[in-house]
Amino acid sequence: MDLSYTADEEQFRTELRDWLAANIPVEWAEAGFWRSLDDAESFRLRREWEASKTAAGFSGIQWPTEYGGRGGTPGMKAIYDEEMVRAHAPQTVNTLGLTFLAPTVMAIGTPEQKAEIIGPMLRNEVIWCQGFSEPGAGSDLAAVATRGVRDGDDYVVNGQKIWTTNAMHGDKIFTIVRTEQGSERHKGLSMMLIDMNQPGVEARPLKQMSGASEFGEVFFTDARVPVKDCLGEIGQGWRTAMLLLSFERGASGVGQYTEFRRQYDEIVEQMRRFGRSDDPVARQKLAHCLVELECLRYHAMHILTQVEQGRDLGSESSMTKLQWSETFQDLWEAFDDVLGPEASLERPRPDVDLAPFQAQAMWSRSVTIWGGSSQVQRNIVAERVLGLPR
Amino acid sequence: MFFALTDEQQAFAETVRDFVADRFDLDAVRAVVEDPDGDGHPLTLWKGLADQGALAVLVPEEHDGLGLGLLDAQVIARELGRAVAPGPWTTSVLAAEALRLAGSPAQQAAWLPGLAAGETVGTVALRGEAGSWDGRGITVDASGERLSGTASPVDYPAVAGLFVVAATDAEGAPGLYLVEAGAQGLAIRDQRTYDGTARVGAVELADTPAELLTGGTLSGGDAVAALMARGAVLTAADLVGGAREALTRTIDYDRDRKQFGVPVGSFQAIKHTMADLHVGVTMAEHAVLFAAHALDTDDPGADIAVAVAKAKAAEAAWNATGAMIQFFGGIGFTWEHEAHFFYKRARRRAPLFGSADEHRERLAVLTMD
User: Fold this and answer.
1) To the nearest whole angstrom, how far is the Cα of B362 from the nearest Cα of chain A?
2) Considering only CB atoms, which chain B residues are within 8 Å of A379?
3) Any idea which fold A7-93 has?
4) Which of A248, A292, A333, A342 is catalytic?
5) Which member of A160, A367, B234, B300 has the greatest number of CB atoms within 10 A?
6) Does domain B7-117 have CATH number 1.10.260.40?
7) What's residue B353's pLDDT?
8) How far is B342 from chain A (nearest CA, A)?
9) In CATH terms, is domain B122-212 a member of 2.40.110.10?
10) How far apart, in whole angstroms, are the C-alpha atoms of residue A2 and residue B299?
11) Which residues does UniProt call coiled coil (chain A) (predicted)?
12) Torsion of Cα atoms, A298 then A303 then A309 then A311, to 10°
């Protein structure tokens, strides 16, 4: 066991921490700050700030320098995730592009695609959405019905995508389209890079149970996509999609732990404020969450080790997803157990604003659904890790 | 970042695993379980473990030990838990740890080589009936170097040659004391347990001559707390080993067992439970590794790490061994089947050195007060 980072990695931490300290306004760390802005203003602020971070050399941490990345190590990426949370840095506005699309383009994109996609994405000049889920294709992704028909040098695309993060802010969307008419399931699909700023594409917000609109719907009505904007081979969209999703298997747990652990401490603070920290049942419930949170931290170190050793994580990422999402949800249920009736009040006292807490509590219902529901993850663990029969 | 066992530590684990599988299989375990009047201390296993260095693992090299850390010791504990192996390994290793942490050079020289070689069996008596596992549960009083009171439950007192007893002196200060087998006023009362892979008794002391462990790195309440923490981690490792083996056996069975014309393991009700158990046991394995390393390196977060490991391991072991009975179905509830070895061992050990509830309360103290 050696839980330290290398000297280079610690040097990177120092540089990043200094930059973040100098470039994040103090008020951004206040609980209600981001909620006080309207959606467009919040997005604009985050978009510009992140672009300045890129200019300072603190984006694309693990990406090769030829793509504008920093050429760093997996350890540096883990440190980056941790420090961003510690500094109350705003969340990225291009998460799906940065996490999934960019590494896929680096792996299988044409030289033109590499040049046109990666740099502008890193500088937030182009915001990317992901077009996978459809009303009839949720957990069963291969049921995709959105179709594309060849017309000269273009495909003409019709159909609907749903649960699209940043749908209202997106410039382009990487989309699974059925390009072979009459094909079924995993066959005959293609990964299309579709310009959302055209008459044939309409995005509509979806109001979530929390009241926020992180997700939206995207409708394609005779949308036109040049053939050159297909990523990977035509008809091999499923393979491209699986490659793309494999990039989720990084060491993001270090940052998640840091964030959730801070939330735990904030809940404890409220627990004390409302005189509930002596309640033995509340203490047990919250301490149970701490056990699971600490396990997430150890698991993140295990995963980082695997990545550094060059091992393929395979279906282990399903275990990571289960651990973090179920723990996060339990933590925010414990919030209500701990506070009792006060937990549901935005202003239980004139000087106490619990709205940011309630926003997290409501958001926690979504995390066991998106990115592969807990039920799908359990199937994957049972079948691919434990070898139980289908 | 290297959060894993080294190749050497993995090889050590395999050596112990192969040895136990080869020399002490489940039939041998059953013989011990079905002989409750026996001492539960098979010498073939004990001598073999001594030959492997499994008893010397934490003892410093100057006292004929291997001078390794808790991370290495938990490797052995896990394998013994996996094999539901009987015998006083955990408690004897802890007695040696008490000497290493709190004993004078002379006390160490007198006892550690014998404990390392397995010539002496040690045991620890750290709390009494209804007492907590944090030093407040001590029920033995020290008057100078004479002890009175009853400690319980104590593992393998009948075969122990050396007892490390936690006692409170006239000023109320806790400390660790050595009592030799056969000492005046020392009586062992067999308490019997449903866990046939262990033998347990009460240690009754009546003005019994003892020797205070003193002159070492730690003393008093610090020594008691350090020993409790090590006991918690080694018990957690044993629990995790048993949990992993129970889960593996259950999955193997449910992959083949057919009902309604298909393997029962193809039903999602079973799959999802197995997936959750696998995640839980895996997290418990991580937690034990981290806690052992934290104690080895005096990590400032060691208190939290130990409480997390014991709470998580107890829960994972109870869940996985209970599921073993459930998912083997009726056969899993029979005496002939081995499921009850795993279940009873987990159920008995779960509260030792602090239950999951007690360790969660410890976390509450550390983070909420």
Assistant:
1) 9
2) 268, 271-272, 275
3) Butyryl-Coa Dehydrogenase, subunit A; domain 1 (1.10.540)
4) A248
5) B234
6) no
7) 98
8) 20
9) yes
10) 12
11) none
12) 150
